[in-house]
Design goal:
Layout: E1 2-6, E2 15-19, E3 30-39, H1 41-47, E4 65-72, E5 84-87, E6 97-98, E7 105-107, H2 114-119, H3 121-134, E8 142-145, H4 151-160, E9 167-171, H5 177-182, E10 187-189, H6 196-203, E11 209-214, H7 219-226, E12 228-236, H8 249-257, H9 264-270, E13 273-276, H10 286-301, E14 309-314, H11 318-326, E15 333-337
Parallel strand pairs: 8-9, 8-11, 9-10, 11-12, 12-13, 14-15
Antiparallel strand pairs: 1-2, 3-4, 3-6, 3-15, 4-5, 5-7
Helix pairs in contact: 3-4, 3-10
């Protein structure tokens, strides 16, 4: 098989395409020939040595892929050779062959492309879980979505269409505002030229919002908490502010000391909640994830959910794919194609 390896922590040049023997599915596993694989910010952080869950280097990362079943391990039922599927391996997805557990394989709808299949699992699972399980967003509420034009951001905007009368604040660079407004953002805020917290308070007459979805981390978690109305929820699901900090110890220390600490008494007094989401740590919660995926497939078939593909890169251009995400140029999902 061919795969994109992170050979050591560092820049884009540490990514190498290597060939190794095809893996053989064990009992309960499925061999999938990959047609497209998803790239997420977590994998960019893994390359930088900033993602604690990543396997020891050298390694192959990647949580999601789409392709065709080539072989079934002993005891696998309900799936068949030649079937088009989405695969959610716990790492190893940036390969042209993966062998996930059968429970991590989801049949694709007939009209779904391989690119869409590779773009759906991580971003939409994250968005669905945060909106409907972590924050329980209700009709008539107001929410703030950071990086609204990214993969998770666009997924959230599509899912928000199922909730009536939402007021949505979304942060994105100015060039992406028309896109996110077209997907339902009420107030687009350019974080380059304005203090988003001040803008939210101005636009809400100082009241703030019911939920904040924050992948930035550090000081932004503090700012988000202060923006919450009574009964508000801060959902923390990333730390992109830490990107690049490994090579800059001053930035590393600076971001670390800005991480807020939440006193349960203060949470009680203010009637606010702080929720953490790390989908990688839910990978063994099979029933939960499969129930989420079943709902997402229904929403796809109903035309409500449709992954937005920003760009595709061949394996030997994986560095360019990482760069596009790291420089925050993407609108939607970046994919790797074998």
């Amino acid at each position: 098989m061919r795969a994109v390896w992170i050979t050591k922590k560092g820049g884009y040049d540490v990514l190498q395409v290597r060939e190794t023997p095809d893996p053989v599915p064990k009992a309960g596993e499925v061999k999938v020939r990959v047609k497209a694989a998803g790239l997420n910010f977590a994998e960019v952080m893994a390359r930088q040595g900033m993602y604690p869950d990543a396997p020891r280097l050298p390694t192959i990362v990647g949580y999601e892929a789409a392709g065709v079943i080539e072989a079934l391990g002993e005891g696998v039922t309900g799936l068949s050779i030649g079937q088009r599927v989405m695969a959610m391996p716990y790492f190893g997805g940036h390969s042209d062959v993966v062998v996930p557990r059968a429970s991590e394989v989801i049949p694709m709808p007939e009209k779904m492309s391989f690119e869409e299949g590779a773009a759906l699992p991580v971003t939409y699972l994250t968005a669905y879980h945060m909106l409907f399980r972590s924050a329980c967003v209700r009709p008539g509420e107001s929410i703030l979505i950071h990086a609204a034009a990214g993969g998770v951001g666009l997924a959230m905007l599509q899912l928000c269409k199922t909730i009536e009368n939402l007021t949505i604040f979304g942060t994105a660079s100015k060039g992406k505002h028309e896109i996110i407004k077209g997907l339902g953002v009420t107030h687009a805020i350019d974080y380059h030229s304005a203090d988003y917290a001040a803008e939210v308070l101005r636009l809400t007459s100082g009241k703030g919002v019911d939920a904040v979805f924050d992948s930035l981390g550090g000081k932004d978690w503090s700012k988000g908490f202060k923006l919450l109305r009574p009964a508000g929820r801060l959902v923390c699901f990333g730390f992109s502010n830490m990107s690049g900090a490994r090579s800059n110890p001053f930035k590393l220390i600076g971001e670390a000391v800005k991480i807020p600490f939440y006193n349960p008494m203060k949470l009680m007094d203010q009637n606010k909640s702080v929720v953490g989401v790390n989908m990688g740590h839910l990978w063994d919660e099979t029933a939960l994830l499969r129930s989420h995926m079943a709902e997402l497939v229904k929403l796809y078939e109903a035309g409500i959910v449709k992954p937005h593909i920003d760009s595709t890169f061949s394996f030997d251009k994986a560095g360019d794919a990482h760069r596009r995400i790291e420089e925050r140029k993407n609108v939607g999902k970046v994919l790797l194609l074998p």
